[in-house]
Amino acid sequence: MEPVYMNPAFLEKVSQCPLCGEQRSTPAYAVSEQAGVRLCPCGVHYCDHRLTPEGLAAYWKDYQVNEHSADAEECALRQRMYQVDFEYIARFLKKRAQILDVGCADGLFLDVFAARGHLCHGVEFGHSAAQAAAQKHRVWEGHFPDMDIPPGYDLIIFRGVLQYLHKPRHFFQKAVSLLRPDGLVFITAQPNMDSFCHKLYQNRFRLGLTPCDCVGFSPKPLVNEFGRLGCRLAGEAFFYEETPYARPAEDIAAVHAALESKRAGGEIASLSPPFWGNMMTLVFQKQ
Ligand SMILES: [Zn+2]
User: Fold this and answer.
1) pLDDT for 92
2) Distances, alpha carbon 55 to alpha carbons 6, 25, 172, in Å
3) Are 186 and 158 in contact (CB under 8 A)?
4) Lowest-pLDDT range of 5-9, 203-207, 216-220
5) CATH placement of domain 77-207+218-286
6) What is the pLDDT of residues 114-167, one digit of tens each?
7) DSSP 3-state percent helix, strand, coil across the chain (nearest 5)
8) Cα-to-centroid distance, 167 and ligand 1 (Å)
9) How far away, in angstroms, is 250 Cα from ligand 1 center?
10) Cα–ligand 1 centroid distance for 44 (angstroms)
11) How many whole angstroms from 258 Cα to the centroid of ligand 1?
């Protein structure tokens, strides 16, 4: 079945940067016949088409069943990534920290924190995922910026979700408003558009932009954005070799083949492999 985000009936044009609102941008590369990626002067890449509200509802309705938990092997690998992510952020956390996971899916990442005695809440847009998470944690279902959530969190998590946000600034403002002083925002499992692989592979970057994954970040625009909100960068990591996805020899060979193909004036046929710098993890602390 054709994905929802390729159906023109579910797409709308994007004429300004989703992060900063700037209308000037430069074309970067095409992703389909009607959609292309643009680069804003702020450093954000974005798709010039995105899902309409109806398209978003159609996509997220069954995302949990169709994609997020579809493949048992992928789920097992993701569980191991949860441990990598947890071990990184754990060094910043006090005991019994109060945690909010925005885009918590079925709550499996929160489970890791709950098992270590932290107090876990979630926010989820997809109905079936929200229901699954609510079996284990307190969960708010809906659009995070509009929610009436009591403040006072020690940690707010955005794990692999920023690429879907039409108005990321509203999410960031909301998150910072819910943090206690010295509280943390943890951004992880986030594609890094400043990576060597994104620059080389462009529309063949495995975690690339589409009308669904419509906005692409790198550290710089996020550091600027959270700086405006009174937060400093407290941690930065780019996991690769410690992940269950890394096969360094094979991955280097694949990137070498892609470089050779591009040098010879050809197209890169395969999707990018896991590689150094592809994924970023950032921690911001409210001052
Ligand atoms: Zn921008």
Assistant:
1) 98
2) 10, 25, 23
3) yes
4) 5-9
5) 3.40.50.150
6) 999 999 999 999 889 999 999 999 999 999 999 999 999 999 999 999 999 999
7) 40, 25, 40
8) 11
9) 35
10) 5
11) 30
- Taken as a whole, the chain contains a residue count of 287
Ligand 1: centre distance to CA 164 (Å): 16
The rounded Å distance from CA 18 to ligand 1 centre is: 7
Q: Can you give the pLDDT at residue 15?
A: 96
Q: What are phi and psi of 27, to 5 degrees?
A: -65, 140
> What's the CA-to-centroid distance between 20 and ligand 1, angstroms?
4
Distance (Å) from CA 174 to ligand 1 centroid: 19
Residue 43 pLDDT > 60: yes
Instruction: Pick the closest to residue 14 from 43, 32, 38, 31 (CA basis).
Output: 38
CA of 222 relative to ligand 1 center, distance in Å:
11
CA nearest 103: which of 13, 12, 171?
171
Q: What HEC string does 70-137 produce?
A: CCHHHHHHHHHHHHHHHHHHHCCCCCCCEEEEECCCCCHHHHHHHHCCCEEEEEECCHHHHHHHHCCC
What is the band of 2 on the pLDDT scale with cuts at 50, 70, 90?
A: low
> Is residue 62 very low, low, confident or very high in pLDDT (cuts 50, 70, 90)?
low
Please state the pTM of the whole predicted model. 0.95
Task: Report whether pLDDT(1) > 80.
Answer: no
Taking the centre of ligand 1 as the mean of its atom positions, its distance from the CA of residue 28, in whole angstroms, is 14
